[in-house]
Design a protein that fits this description.
Pfam families: SCO1-SenC (PF02630). It is built from five helices and nine strands, in the order αβββαβαβαββββα. With about 190 residues, the chain is α+β, with helices and mostly antiparallel strands. The strands form two sheets. Strands 2-1-5-4-3-8-9 form a seven-stranded mixed beta sheet. Strands 6-7 form a two-stranded antiparallel ribbon.
Length: about 190
Amino acid sequence: WLYLRRQKERQLRARRLRDLRALALGQGDFQLRDTAGTPRSKRDFLGRWVLLYFGFTHCPDVCPEELEKLSRAVRLLEREPGLPPVQPLFVTVDPERDDAAALARYLRDFHPRLVGLTGTPEQVRAAARAFRVYVSAGPRDADGDYVVDHSVITFLVDPDGLFRDFYGRSRTAEEVARSVKGHMESYEPLPP
């Protein structure tokens, strides 16, 4: 009975991986720069678990809340013995205002390993498209300021570079950490 149960669980995981590959969410690469100006692509993060959030530094409340939640989830996972480290990533959806210096200033208030990525408007749009993130800059006010409407989702990407799960605003840091831990424990690398 246990053998059949494990076999069924393996089949369900294999089917989920096939479905995720077919979805092609986040399968494309991105060409961005980190806060030190170093070119970064998705390949740079292969072999690591990644929690990825798209947002912008002028966001009044949602982005700081989500980054704080992401940071807390990473800290909770770091307390778990034997789990691999999670790489938190932040990709701006507002490259006009979010250059490397602005990202560095903004992200220092969150997890110390949080990597900020920016690029040209075309590069940022391509990265958002790869993850099917909605992005729309609102109208400018009299001071030229504007808000960027965007999807509020944190993505989990596995060491093979595959999208594994996503977490919306309603999920707590504890729920995110529990889910990530579950994915780590059931993870089987892709065959070569």
